[in-house]
Known about the structure:
Elements: E1 2-10, E2 13-20, E3 29-37, H1 40-48, E4 64-65, E5 70-77, E6 90-93, E7 119-122, H2 124-128, E8 132-134, H3 140-158, E9 160-162, E10 170-172, E11 179-183, H4 188-202, E12 209-214, H5 217-226, H6 229-235, E13 238-243, H7 249-255, E14 262-267, H8 272-281, E15 282-290, H9 305-310, E16 314-316, H10 323-334, E17 344-348, H11 353-358, E18 367-370, E19 379-380, H12 384-387, H13 392-402, H14 410-419
Parallel strand pairs: 11-12, 11-14, 12-13, 14-15, 15-16, 17-18
Antiparallel strand pairs: 1-2, 1-4, 3-5, 3-7, 3-18, 5-6, 6-8, 9-10, 17-19
Helix pairs in contact: 3-4, 3-10, 13-14
Amino acid sequence: MKTKAVRLYGKEDIRLEEFELAPLKDNEILVKNVTDSICMSSYKASKQGADHVRVPNDVAENPTILGHEICGEIVEVGKDWQEKYKVGDKFVVQPGHNKNGSLMAPGYSYTEYGGDATYGNMPADIMDMDCLLPFSGEAFFLGSLAEPVSTVIGGFNSLYHHKEKGSYEHVMGMKEGGNLAMIASVGPMGLAAIAYIFAMAIEGKMAKRVLVTDIDQSRLDRAESIYTPARAKELGFELKYMNTSGKTSFDDMMAYTDGEGYDDVFVLAPVPPLVKQAQQLLRYDGCLNFFSGPSDNQFSVEMNMYDVHYSNHHFVGNSGGNNEDLREAVRLLSDGKLNVAPMITHILGLEDVAYVTMNVPNIPGGKKLVYPHCEIELTAIEDFAEKGKTDSRFADLAEIMSRSNQIWNAEAEQYVLKHFAIAE
């Protein structure tokens, strides 16, 4: 079978190509990718090429397929897996399978499978580690968002505190009834984190106060219009959005806690002053999650080791989530408790994936959602109406979006899959 795929050959060398997949092996599964969303991690791979820890050294001779935030359907099952997987099943993928400690992952390492392709041969490693998971959500795009959301869930699961002062027993997770700060947290991953905070509250696990900061007022306003302080109050916690571009921002952030400081702080931008400030916000036994991985392997910041010693500050980080994090994301999405659709701000087909991947930091907005079997140039949701003046399909999409507060949804996806599909 032929596939059309976006392949990485090296640093800033990405090509859209069509080629013949190898005959399916007994321990592989042939899949159709219906959606993939573009991740900052793919940008890092495009910049680093073979220097990236997940990209093989011989990528120039054996290019790999990009994309790891995948949702699709099973087309054919090799005989080794026919008892477990069925043709037609919808799936999501946990890319970090870590088989035997390997860093291999779809979207970085495999020549015949990645999300930015029409079809692919799923390698045995993924099934061996039970990283091909069923998905029953109402829309494929929600499945693509399950993987980035799983990294957020992993971030919250990696937090820890001590059971009591003087105890060495760790209590994992966000401190319930405590103060939580989300720094630089209204980008796409920040929105996912806010959505997860609400989902946890729906299930009865919550902080006392949550502060969300950024320096972009328009993005703060959009986040506040979706994840509202009024709804947070209904669920039992306080929520405040704050623009921290002013000179008194640190004092204002501390004042929100009545001077107590924060039990948990997430940093969602690799900016040294933000990391330094985040530690200063911590109270005794506070935990800082440096969530946003830098592309610079020499990224370093100043730390207050006095407070590590005497105030029991601790630091964690996580790159991706594990299988249980992904299962939790799928469960919450399927149950309708996790509202992450606002992460999506653009749609596109495979033709623009290379450009978008190499320019992720320079393209405004949130998640860029790829429909590999559709022909769509990169288009922001907010531009549908304008584009609809010359293409009636976008006028129809604009009308659909007007009924959903401009939030991507299952109806819009079904329209795209029907009216923008490429004949096969």
